[in-house]
Amino acid sequence: MDLGFLLQSLIPSWNSVAVLAIYFAYLAVAGSILPGKLVPGVTLQDGSRLHYRCNGLLALVLLVGLLGIGSKMNFVSLTVISDRGLELLSATFIFSFLVMLVLYAAGCRSRSKGSSLKPHITGNLIHDWWYGVQLNPQFMGIDLKFFFVRAGMMGWLLINLSILAKSVQDGSLSLSMILYQLFCVLYILDYFVYEEYMTSTWDIIAERLGFMLVFGDLVWIPFTFSIQGWWLLNNKVELTKAAAIANCFVFLIGYLVFRGANKQKHIFKKNPKELIWGKPPKVIGGKLLASGYWGIARHSNYLGDLLLALSFSLPCGISSPIPYFYPIYLFILLVWRERRDEARCAEKYKDIWAEYCRLVPWRIFPYLY
């Protein structure tokens, strides 16, 4: 690709800015007015707790329906994202940067003593910028951390659907593209079916909202997780029937481990006496679950996530490493995150964590790591 053309394509147009603005406006309105289960978050240090309206699935289905109707009426093009991918990438990056400027300034000026808005300032500008200053900043009553991760996951699906529309329009739809799209749709729909489980994840509970999360949610998730789709749009891959079936098995096993582990953890936090695989749970020190998937590996959900990421890339074949950027990146990220998790848990649970590590020696990959 010509470098001049690439740089020109990265310059946001007013159309791309409008697309982004309409998208965020829709999510803000839909998230506020559509019915959904009101899920209480964890109790914070000051005794308070946030409540999250989990209506993401309804908002997503409604949005896709509106886009479909708009396309039929020639109000909107289904390929608007795939036609303006680089523009939207740069526009979203600039938006993320501007959002972080506002969050950092607002956080530094905050005088709140509550856990959600109390500023955590280390004096290291880069550290505070990257990891954030406040735990749960809000805008017009909208919890921004929950809002941004929802925007990123929906954005990933919308990019994929636009790529799919482009491949149909170009007459290049293949089995590889169908498998990739199917796996991603199932994964993203599953995320929104179980959206309430997100409220008990580390990102929501403990990570402050800094550039790491803002950029990660709005830019990294939708635009890098869809690399396989962009690659398939420009490269033809012929999958054998055996390869397609094997790919389906990788996805299925990954899904069962990922969803099963996260579901067990969420249920245990809500009801520590709930049966796990039909048996009373084994609990270490009254706090740590050591049954089910959590009795196999201490971060078994990461194993499921890695298998799913691999299944998204396998439809692209093995002719290029580019489609494998996501699983390679995710492997590095999760090993790094696992190390952070281990250090935090060792400090928090002390002897209880040591006992858990003795009982469950494997970190992510049973019998390997």
Describe the structure.
A hairpin with a 3-residue loop joins strand 5 and strand 6. The protein is 62% helix and 4% strand. The strands form 3 sheets. Strands 1-2 form a two-stranded antiparallel sheet. Strands 3-4 form a two-stranded antiparallel sheet. Strands 5-6 form a two-stranded antiparallel ribbon. The protein folds into 2 domains: 238 residues, no CATH class; 130 residues, no CATH class. The radius of gyration is 21 Å and the shape is globular. The mean pLDDT is 90. The chain is mostly helical. InterPro entries: ERG24_DHCR-like, Sterol_reductase_CS. One of its GO terms (cellular component) is endoplasmic reticulum membrane. It holds the Pfam family ERG4_ERG24. This is Delta(14)-sterol reductase. GO terms for molecular function: Delta14-sterol reductase activity.
End-to-end C-alpha gap: 41 Å
Q: Return Rg in Å.
A: 21 Å
Low-pLDDT residue intervals, each spanning 5 or more residues = none
Q: For the largest beta sheet, what order do the strands appear in spatially?
A: 1-2
How many distinct helices?
Answer: 15
| Percentage of β-strand residues | under 5%
**How many domains would you count in the coordinates?**
2
Helical percentage: 55-70%
- Report the count of strand segments: 6
Structural class: mainly alpha
Mean pLDDT: 90
The profile of the biggest β sheet is: 2 strands, antiparallel
Helix/strand order, N-terminal first: HHEEHHHHEEHHHHHHEEHHH
Shape: globular
- What is the oligomer described by this structure? single chain
